[in-house]
Amino acid sequence: MTARLGLGTYRCLDAAEAALMAASRGADWVDTAPNYAGGRAEASLAVALAAYPDLRVSTKVGFVPVGARHVGVRVGALSAADAKHGHCLAPDYIAWQLARSRLMLGRVPDLVFVHNPEHACPDGGITGRLYNAFLALEEACSQQIISAYGVATWRGFSSGLFDVPTLVELATKAGGPSHHLWAIQLPVSLVHLAPVAQALDGRGPLADALAAGLEVFTSAPLHGGEIPGLVTPELSELITPGKTPAETALAVVASAPGVKRVLLSTGNPEHWMRAAEAVGQPPLSPDVLRRVVDVLGT
Question: What is the pLDDT of residue 292?
Fold first, then answer.
């Protein structure tokens, strides 16, 4: 299986403790954002990142932490309207937030996602805003403030607001053939099966990312912890005989074409190790994945 388990910190009660736990058990990636944990998530990861230099980290730009809004307006990085809205993709804000993230994390982030760009553009105009954001991120890459960037979205692909070819086109326009667009992040789970079904037919964001050479990070693989309670023993036995519902759900996500990293939020060592084992198993066959889609739908 080509996918690996990474720590997502969105739902972690204690991101610092979770990161130390995961890193001590072989995790090589942790994903966070400035607005997680009430704006404290990035700073809380600094200890784990210092203790484990090989632990890679991704953060995000877009949502404005509540505690940073007043300061952002005062220094001219944010307009009052964007501060009130709580989301901003303006180049000045991106540059300011990247500097804050680097300071909070204590190192250059390996990857910075544009966070739910659909939130900033409810009435259209998303292509222009993404292009301007990519320009700012390419500039940050050239100055070695960050290493690479991507797009993390909850509904951008599913709603048709943008697709991977559009993102690649915008990145090429912003940074040339050697642009630094490196990854996408989207929800994939037994609840969000459409990307899997599309990929099995050679289309959709997973297939497009694979064709473009982009890394795919999947979020919410257990749908906030709800999925294990939804998977019946019969379904689990159909997909992965002898495995728990959570292990079955993770195996489906990790087996989806193009998926490179499955992000799981947990601070429980046992849950982490069982999840890592499930993700590390040989991938389910396309026939099994099609059977899952046929049974559950999209």
Answer: 93
| Domain spanning 1-31+188-298: CATH superfamily | NADP-dependent oxidoreductase domain (3.20.20.100)
pLDDT tens readout for residues 62-108: 999 999 999 999 999 999 999 999 999 999 999 999 999 999 999 99
d(CA 106, CA 258): 31
Q: In whole angstroms, what is the distance from residue 239 CA to residue 276 CA?
A: 18
Spatial distance between the Cα atoms of 23 and 46, rounded to a whole number of angstroms = 13
Using the structure block, give the residue that is written with the tokens 């943008």. 162
Alpha helices in 29-90 (DSSP H): 41-44, 46-51, 66-74, 80-85
Q: Inter-axis angle of helices 15-24 and 269-279, to 10 degrees?
A: 50
pTM for the full predicted model: 0.96
| Strand partners of residue 31 | 8, 58
Residue 5 reports pLDDT greater than 80? yes
Residue 233: is its pLDDT beyond 90?
no
How far apart CA 148 and CA 84 sit, in angstroms, is 29
**Radius of gyration of the chain measured on its C-alpha atoms:** 19
- Please state, in angstroms and rounded to a whole number, the distance separating the CA atoms of residues 266 and 252: 19
In the three-class reduction of DSSP (H, G, I as helix; E, B as strand; rest coil), residue 89 is classed as coil
